[in-house]
Specification:
By secondary structure, the protein is of the alpha+beta class. The protein has a single domain, classed as 3-Layer(aba) Sandwich (NADH Oxidase). It is built from six helices and four strands; from the N terminus they run H-H-E-H-H-E-H-E-H-E. The protein has a four-stranded antiparallel β-sheet with strand order 1-2-4-3. Helix 2 packs antiparallel against helix 5 (100-116). The longest helix is centred in the middle third of the chain and has 17 residues, at 100-116. It is globular, with a radius of gyration of 17 Å. 31% of the residues are buried. Bound molecules: flavin mononucleotide. The site of flavin mononucleotide has 10 residues, from strand 3. Flavin mononucleotide (FMN) is lined by residues 12-13, 15, 78, 122-126, 169.
Length: 180
């Protein structure tokens, strides 16, 4: 089967990663894939930061725990941590306005490019609390990453070498139909 189609059909969410960092060449390709994403009227409203600073990721996780509480489902649902699932690279997308369509498309570009490079990813929405506008943590991380305070968090992506082979998640058969 065509390699691109294979990539799309075989992608699965990965929540366990090897500790090794992705290469700079891989990172460069992911950045190009993000940049190349289409956007409405070519407005390019999304700003993405690929965070590879381990201390920063650990601190983000700590901030998130303090915000949502240690024993809430947001935190305990996953074995490791819900912020970046211990992935070595964590991409965070912000946009000037709520540009969910544009950011979703950029996100999928990054995810599929990563899959094509043999990397695993997890799209993460649940860390939104960490980047809430007008909140202490929201100001802090925007400042660290040179993101204007008013920009809205859209979505994040954990990226790294997979350290698991998850079971296939079933899909509903009746959601996609042909009308002739
Ligand atoms: C918009 C969106 C938000 C998601 N948020 C999270 C999240 O916060 N935490 C997480 O572990 N997985 C998250 N996921 C991953 C989904 O749980 C996963 O894609 C879904 O269960 C289907 O599994 P699959 O990707 O392996 O096919 C998110 C996926 C999408 C598309």
């Amino acid at each position: 089967m065509n390699e691109m189609i294979n990539t799309i059909l075989n992608r699965q969410t990965i929540r366990s990663y090897k500790s090794g960092q992705i290469s700079d060449e891989q990172l460069d390709i992911l950045m190009k894939a993000a940049k190349q994403a289409p956007s409405g009227r070519n407005g390019q409203p999304c700003h993405v930061r690929f965070v590879q600073n381990k201390e920063m990721l650990v601190e983000m996780n700590k901030d998130f725990k303090e915000l949502v509480g240690y024993d809430t489902p947001a935190y305990t649902r996953w074995d490791v941590n819900p912020v970046y699932h211990n992935a070595p690279t964590f991409a965070v997308i912000f946009a000037e306005n709520e540009s969910y369509m544009d950011s979703g498309i950029m996100c999928e570009n990054i995810v599929l490019a990563a899959e094509g490079l043999g990397l695993g990813t997890c799209i993460i929405a649940s860390v939104g609390a960490l980047f809430k506008e007008n909140s202490e943590a929201g100001y802090k991380w925007r400042r660290e990453w040179n993101i204007p305070e008013s920009y809205k968090f859209q979505i994040a992506i954990a990226i790294g070498y997979p350290d698991e082979k998850p079971e296939w998640k079933p899909r509903f058969d009746d959601r996609i139909q042909v009308i002739k």
